[in-house]
Amino acid sequence: MIEVIDILGTIAFTISGVLVALHKRMDLFGIIIIGFVTAVGGGTIRDLLIGFTPVTWMQQPRIVYIVLLTSIFALIFRKRLDYLRTSLFLFDTIGIGLYTVIGLQKGIQAELHPVICIALGTITACFGGVLRDILCNEIPVIFRKEIYATACILGGLTYFVLYKLNLDESLLFLVSGIVVILVRLLAVKFKISLPKLYQE
Amino acid sequence: MIEVIDILGTIAFTISGVLVALHKRMDLFGIIIIGFVTAVGGGTIRDLLIGFTPVTWMQQPRIVYIVLLTSIFALIFRKRLDYLRTSLFLFDTIGIGLYTVIGLQKGIQAELHPVICIALGTITACFGGVLRDILCNEIPVIFRKEIYATACILGGLTYFVLYKLNLDESLLFLVSGIVVILVRLLAVKFKISLPKLYQE
Amino acid sequence: MIEVIDILGTIAFTISGVLVALHKRMDLFGIIIIGFVTAVGGGTIRDLLIGFTPVTWMQQPRIVYIVLLTSIFALIFRKRLDYLRTSLFLFDTIGIGLYTVIGLQKGIQAELHPVICIALGTITACFGGVLRDILCNEIPVIFRKEIYATACILGGLTYFVLYKLNLDESLLFLVSGIVVILVRLLAVKFKISLPKLYQE
Known about the structure:
Number of helices of chain A: 8
Largest sheet of chain A: none
Oligomer: homotrimer
Radius of gyration of chain A: 17 Å
Order of helices and strands of chain A: HHHHHHHH
Shape of chain A: globular
Distance between the termini of chain A: 49 Å
Number of strands of chain A: 0
């Protein structure tokens, strides 16, 4: 089950990278690299920061093939991806929930402070997109229009608040992931975003 | 004493990040991340390059709170930060001196070559600002208008020149840090900067 | 022999960085840093991903001096570098061949999957240029106009295809490096590049 979510999340992240790269008129190599970085970049930054090397994707070559196939699929059907918009959004959202939980877990395994674990969850879920935007020479969209970082942070907080109830750990992770997903769905539905702070 | 300087330096670096992020019309999440990256980015790159993981800030969650509080303070008083300009410049300058020395020390502990230790000191002091500018989609200001990299390099050279005099190590670090601070103060006072090399 | 190629490659990569930095009107510090990052950036990313720290250049301070001398040479003779264009292109090309092979080797030593080893070879050869372009606030040229990534990938494939023939390992590396060099020379000669995929 977790494997399936992981693969769906990877596919959704890859396609988001491919679309940005196409928009930037990159060639085939650039498009695949941007898809790859979007999919694995957050986990890679997390792994580097905690010293988990070789980083996860180097130990799971499967992910390279998933990104390759997804990129080619996205290129062939790029004019029809719009039909998949709702599915992709859902994959993306549950992917974010899963990635947040994986980041949390890694931080807890490394016995880091809760606030650092929450940061690791958020980095895992959000920083693939940050790297994608930097490589595409854009200010990371997540810094301008809050999309899901707050959802990741709330999911992480949920874990540590519930932790005191002595619940089973996998239940904690499940609930935290669901909080991420729900907050994001609600935020998108009701168009909630963080305040912009710049005033002319 | 060193802790106080470290905190003042963190505050000054965070505020410099917040101001750039505000100027780029980021939202609250973006502003805090840019503040954080500016404050801890140099030390993080240093830690990654020498393989010191989990990186320093993950072992000092205190710094997360300092950055959060500073960012919120800076946002609330953003129209009055000008009154603090001189204090912030001083905090920033002594912060740079301290960060250079910390980087030097880490390199020496890892038994690296002097030229690499000097590079580590300079990276610690300067590359938070480089990351800030990359995330804000700007060419790093330090690559265009020399601000303080030369001061860091001279401070590092001082350490290794004086090393031969068999002085106490903490005295060496103190003198090196003071050289960084003095060179920067003098450079700003007399508007000294490196030559630009491009000619039409 | 390998040392000579390594030095020639470093020189060619540094000069490519210096030229881009000059074009961006950087000052002396910026120019040297961009030269340095172009020369060692690919190997540094590779080392970080596989957890080989302190990264290679920190253990070979020689490279710092080579980059410094090359940058100063390139600055002094910047108006006459055009005469060296053919030599620089050749140094660059054999440097890419060597870097690909070094990356392959490191992956094989770390017992990583072939597809990951090929990625490491390509990263070693190509990502110094990617970092250079990011620091100069450009979309990496290699993502828009395929220049040599395909050559690196083909060289890596060659290694693993020939591996089954039970040849001597150093012969395998030699042939793989030569494939990289030949593919690039032919691609440039016949102006072959990957298709652009964006259509209005």
